[in-house]
Amino acid sequence: MPKIGNIELPDFPLLLAPMEDVSDPPFRAVCKDNGADLMFSEFISSEGLIRDAMKSRQKLDFSEEERPFGIQIFGGDEDAMQSSARICETVNPDLVDINFGCPVKKVVSKGAGAGVLKDIDLMVRLTQAVVKGTSLPVTVKTRLGWDDNTKNIEEVAERMQDCGIKALSIHGRTRCQLYKGEADWSLIAKVKNNPRIHIPIFGNGDIDSAQKALEYKNRYGVDGIMIGRAAIGYPWIFREIKHYLQTQTILPSPTLEERVAVCRKHLYKSVEWKGPVVGIYEMRRHYTNYLKGLPGIKEFRLKLVTLSSAEAINEVLQDILEHYAGYQFERTPIEMINYHEKCPL
Q: CATH homologous superfamily of domain 3-247?
């Protein structure tokens, strides 16, 4: 069983990727219910934490039920990263994760996220600063390299391990690929098979089915898998993968009742955590995914994204249950959401 420091994880753990504007406590709650083994905060600006910015501070929130839980930080300044690691430690997460993979322009242009991939020596200094700034285990999330000509992940993995990190998650694309094309797991496998590497190596990118999870587990030999976009609106992917790994049988698709129940829990948690106005507004992005596949759902969905009270939304969800009573969902490939300028890393 892989361990991150003293954190014991199950055999072949499934990690929920930290996704900006997605991986908040309400979303994490429904993923945890369905089998996510390790989860992270949305990525948090080290500069924002030091300035005590409200949005950055709010992202530190998590509940005991979410453990083991990691807080992910990003930045390009050593002192700021070290100070933010100390701030993270005050809320007592299980680990601190460093984001060296976010490809979005506004992060990269500040010399943070995947922007650091152009300067491995800086990556080392930033990592050393975080390791020195906390007694918690430190992990790293990164990509294969900046572009096709600089896929330096094997060197990066060794140097990150030498800095003292306790696990490495690798997204199988370069920064320049963003989320286009196929993730290349062959280099992730090379890192895992490097005799110098003794920390857990987690693979990330394009896992959208239980069958693919087993195939990649066997083919690439990673210690676990990180799942991001495929979990949005479909937290059941974690339980489906676990069931398939154990039995090689495919679970039935979640029923309409299950989908509505999880949607309701997500809504209530969102209102509870963000307040009625922001909670209801930010929940609107999720309805399409939860209800995907229902014929003629557009009329109901239009109501869901225009109503402004949880009670009224709940009534529409009840109407959906009654209108589609007995509907059997066909198993279709999970739609991998294209974030463009979002950063689901």
A: Aldolase class I (3.20.20.70)
Give me 165's structure tokens.
């990190």
Cα distance from N-terminal residue to C-terminal residue, the chain: 25
In the chain, domain spans: 3-247, 256-323
Architecture of domain 256-323: Orthogonal Bundle (1.10)
CA–CA separation, 95 and 40 (whole Å): 9
pTM beyond 0.90, yes or no = yes
DSSP-based helix, strand, coil % in the chain, nearest 5: 45, 10, 40
Residue 55 CA to residue 77 CA, distance in Å, equals: 20
Output the tens digit of pLDDT for each of the chain's 345 residues.
Answer: 889 999 999 999 999 999 888 999 999 999 999 999 999 999 998 988 998 877 888 899 999 999 999 999 999 899 999 999 999 999 999 999 999 876 666 777 666 776 788 889 999 999 999 999 999 999 999 999 877 788 899 999 999 999 999 999 999 988 766 677 788 999 999 999 999 999 999 999 999 999 999 999 999 999 999 999 999 999 999 999 999 999 999 999 999 999 999 999 999 999 999 999 999 999 998 999 999 999 999 999 999 999 999 999 999 999 999 999 989 887 665 665 554 444 333
Please give the Cα distance from 263 to 286 (Å, whole number): 8
Active-site amino acid positions = 102
- Pick the closest to residue 120 from 163, 84, 83, 172 (CA basis): 163
